[in-house]
């Protein structure tokens, strides 16, 4: 194969479309559709006494109003709990429209359908809902007191409780190891809530075909196949009668993996009932108050360590704020607790978490999914150990690293699926060496002294992480070569900006030996690929990438078989270069892949120019062989699936240099360096883009992003005026270096990269600010006012 594009920094093919306004997002579709809007609860906790819609009925253009009472069959049931876990003893999900009780501000209560969104909103404003206000439970500490309950039948507001204990040498428990250690530390950390906030909110648009009895649904989703299954189940439709298509999706960052969102089943239901097209697009306020949040945790840490800083025992107790419902199970605290140890091996480890209900919007995974909290915990521990011992912070980390010869490394933890958590490969000492060189760690004391002489306060910080990526159960790829020589690739998972149209084309072009211009890629369209899981957990490259490669290999094998017959050669002597199948070393003995595609189908039409050319290769018809040989299928296409035994572990290390303003306490990031290892790189430019985006999001989490609820459960900053995100001016230039330790688990040797950038940023910035200021940070994010108060406390 000489058409080698795997590993090349190919420019993103989708960008020309996306950055010139040619993208087709949800709200670009369905221009003539009716609009849906929702009356949402203004209270955090209340009983619905009465819903009076009479005043809204006169609104011109009103088409329908629905409450829970109107919902039939399975639609009237609570939404599914997507990933149950035995420890989630009290899992609870919402009804698509509230039934009797509302449990957070923003919960949908009434659905209105009207000629356009303005009229629908007008009608919503005229609907009167009488509530009996109940005591809201806000904040983890209030919730664990258990005096007031979010769900009457969930005592103590505890939805789940899970303990995992990994004994140390000699069977010592973490408690025993800590008590016997030469040094101990104990502290508390507070991690605030944040929200995914993709540029494009959620949205759904549905068309009912009454003749065919089928639904076509467009959804701004990360999981079109699962949305399809949910709609079919909730509406009682056979699966083949439902198509779900994710058009261009303007970001997801986790929030669009929940399936179905209430609107995703209500809008198609209304479309069928009314036999009209219906559409809903989320506005920003709806996104903040009624989608989902993440991060929010309180962590209590105890660590015991030796004079080198080696952790002999670690105990972590996590209180995880789950909001009002658990549609996505307890995956977030499970990830925090099981991946918290990162690249380190500790003597004995005990982790315990409680998943707590509060009258706030539900919590589901947000980019990094529980890892930023875990890394914050582990890296604060490393820094505090270093401070306690007066040792260099990188030396303490190095003393605890899993070594390259120790892979596969079993951390002793059990993951969500009940399987052990085993790291497949990595080289953490080398990554740290590269990082220190990149940022100039060893010479920083002089830089800092020079800055101090100029009256400036600067500090350096470091943070390390691992990330289980490419989770199963499976993903598939379909590849078809048509008689024009084009290669059509499809996979069922969706894209939200990760550059899949480019990377999957790179894989197919490399595997099939064709120019990338010949390859087109379709994702997230159940018409093209029905069995898929979705895009989350940094899994697309590993899962669909490998599935597409495997499907291409099938196609390649078939192509070589057919070409060998046409060229009267041995298939083992053939290769494909630039779309031509030829005998290795004899380019003249060749046949276009396009012609091979024609030969693969005995039905050759006169209107196909390639078919005419193919006759020279077709050979005489045979009396004793059917046109389609036994065991063959017509066409040059193949489908395959990739299903891994376990996740593959990417890793990385970040360092930052910050300056803290002496007067305003503003924190400025002067330099930011990343060493990242996601195994074999398919496209280094795209991976860097993913890391840049992730770090930018991480800077938000480190310095700005925080959802603020008052004691009544009202979200005080549900707009971009009040919820701060970093602008380009706050995101530093990011210096990136790659380390490639291939994964032994998959054919392409790749690991995921999509979340990595965000994971350690809060820990790194906290580390750098501590270094600049000589203070201790126990909270993320840390704002200028937090820093000001920490200075006063010093
Ligand atoms: N890649 C590569 N080589 C590797 C690994 C990855 O070239 N060894 C490329 C992939 O081919 C893909 C990109 O890097 O183009 C990210 O790959 P992967 O790690 O598989 O992540 P996913 O494609 O599964 O994307 C999901 C991930 C997650 S979980 C969140 S959240 C997130 C993220 O991606 N949301 C995003 N990145 C995002 N980027 C954008 N623009 N928008 C989002 O909503």
UniProtKB/TrEMBL annotation:
UniProt entry keywords in alphabetical sequence: Molybdenum, Oxidoreductase
The keyword Oxidoreductase appears for this protein: yes
Region annotated Disordered, chain positions: 616-640
MF term (GO), any: iron ion binding
Keyword Oxidoreductase included in the entry's annotation: yes
Stretches assigned to the Aldehyde oxidase/xanthine dehydrogenase a/b hammerhead domain: 20-135
Pfam families: Ald_Xan_dh_C, MoCoBD_1, MoCoBD_2
Protein name, UniProt field: Molybdopterin-dependent oxidoreductase
Organism, as annotated: Microbispora catharanthi
């Amino acid at each position: 194969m000489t058409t080698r594009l795997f590993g090349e920094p190919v420019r993103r093919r989708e960008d020309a479309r996306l950055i010139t306004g040619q993208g087709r997002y949800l709200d670009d579709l369905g221009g003539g559709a009716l609009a849906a809007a929702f009356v949402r609860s203004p209270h955090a906790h209340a009983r619905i006494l009465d819903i009076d819609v009479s005043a809204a009925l006169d609104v011109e253009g009103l088409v329908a109003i629905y409450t829970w009472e109107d919902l039939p069959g399975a639609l009237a049931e609570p939404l599914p709990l997507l990933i149950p876990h035995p420890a989630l003893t009290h899992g609870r999900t919402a009804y698509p429209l509230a039934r009797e009780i509302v449990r957070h501000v923003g919960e949908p209560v009434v659905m209105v359908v009207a000629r356009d969104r303005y009229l629908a909103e007008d009608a919503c404003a005229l609907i009167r809902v009488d509530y009996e206000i109940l005591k809201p439970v806000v904040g983890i500490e209030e919730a664990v007191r258990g005096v007031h309950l979010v769900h009457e039948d969930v005592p103590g507001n505890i939805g789940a409780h899970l303990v995992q204990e990994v004994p140390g040498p000699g069977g010592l428990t973490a408690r025993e190891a800590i008590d016997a250690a030469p040094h101990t530390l104990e502290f508390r950390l507070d991690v605030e809530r944040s929200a995914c906030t993709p540029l494009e909110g959620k949205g759904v648009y549905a068309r009912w075909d009454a003749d065919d009895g089928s639904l076509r649904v467009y959804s701004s989703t990360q999981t079109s196949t699962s949305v399809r299954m949910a709609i079919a189940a909730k509406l009682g439709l056979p699966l083949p009668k439902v198509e779900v298509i994710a058009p261009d999706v303007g970001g997801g960052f986790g929030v669009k993996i929940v399936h179905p969102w209430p609107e995703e089943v209500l809008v198609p239901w209304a479309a069928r009932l009314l036999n009209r097209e219906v559409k809903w697009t989320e506005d920003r306020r709806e996104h903040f108050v009624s989608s989902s949040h993440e991060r929010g945790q309180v962590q209590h840490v105890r660590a015991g360590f030796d004079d080198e800083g080696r952790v002999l025992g670690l105990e972590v107790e996590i209180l995880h704020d789950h909001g009002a419902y658990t549609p996505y199970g307890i995956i977030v605290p499970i990830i925090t607790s099981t991946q918290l140890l990162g690249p380190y091996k500790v003597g004995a480890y005990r982790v315990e978490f409680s998943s707590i209900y509060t009258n706030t919007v539900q919590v589901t995974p947000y980019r990094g999914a529980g890892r930023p909290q875990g890394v914050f915990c582990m890296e604060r521990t490393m820094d505090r150990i270093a401070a306690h011992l007066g040792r260099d912070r990188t030396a303490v980390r190095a003393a605890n690293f899993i070594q390259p010869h120790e892979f596969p490394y079993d951390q002793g933890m059990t993951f969500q699926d009940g399987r052990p958590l085993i790291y497949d490969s990595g080289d953490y000492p080398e990554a740290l060496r590269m990082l220190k060189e990149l940022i100039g760690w060893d010479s920083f004391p002089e830089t800092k002294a020079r800055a101090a002489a100029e009256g400036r306060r600067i500090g350096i910080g470091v943070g390390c992480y691992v990330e289980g990526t490419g989770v199963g159960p499976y993903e598939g790829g379909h590849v078809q070569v048509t008689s024009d020589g084009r290669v059509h690739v499809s996979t069922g998972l969706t894209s939200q900006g990760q550059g899949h149209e480019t990377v999957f084309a790179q894989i197919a072009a490399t595997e099939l030996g064709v120019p990338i211009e010949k390859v087109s890629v379709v994702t997230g369209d159940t018409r093209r690929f029905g069995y898929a899981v979705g895009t989350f957990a940094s899994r697309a490259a590993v899962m669909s990438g490998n599935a597409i490669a495997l499907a291409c290999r099938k196609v390649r094998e078939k192509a070589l078989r057919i070409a060998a017959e046409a060229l009267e050669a041995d298939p083992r002597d053939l290769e494909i270069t630039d779309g031509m199948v030829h005998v290795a070393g004899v380019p003249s003995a060749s046949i276009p892949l396009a012609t091979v595609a024609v030969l693969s189908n005995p039905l050759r039409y006169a209107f196909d120019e390639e078919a005419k050319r193919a006759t020279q290769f077709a050979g005489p018809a045979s009396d004793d062989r059917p046109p389609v040989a036994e065991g063959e299928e017509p066409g040059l296409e193949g489908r395959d699936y990739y299903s891994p035994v376990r996740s593959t572990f990417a890793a990385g290390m970040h360092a930052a240099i910050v300056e803290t303003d002496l007067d305003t306490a503003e924190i400025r990031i002067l330099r930011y360096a990343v060493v990242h290892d996601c195994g074999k790189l398919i496209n280094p430019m795209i991976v860097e883009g993913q890391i840049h985006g992730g770090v930018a999001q991480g800077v938000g989490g480190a310095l700005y992003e925080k959802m603020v609820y008052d004691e009544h459960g009202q979200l005080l900053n549900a707009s971009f005026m009040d919820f701060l995100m970093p602008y380009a001016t706050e995101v530093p230039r990011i210096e990136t270096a790659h380390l490639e330790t291939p994964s032994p688990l998959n054919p392409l040797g790749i690991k995921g990269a999509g979340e990595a950038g965000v994971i350690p940023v809060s820990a790194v910035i906290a580390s750098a600010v501590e270094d600049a200021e000589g203070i201790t940070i126990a909270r993320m994010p840390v704002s200028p006012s937090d820093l000001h108060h920490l200075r006063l406390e010093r």
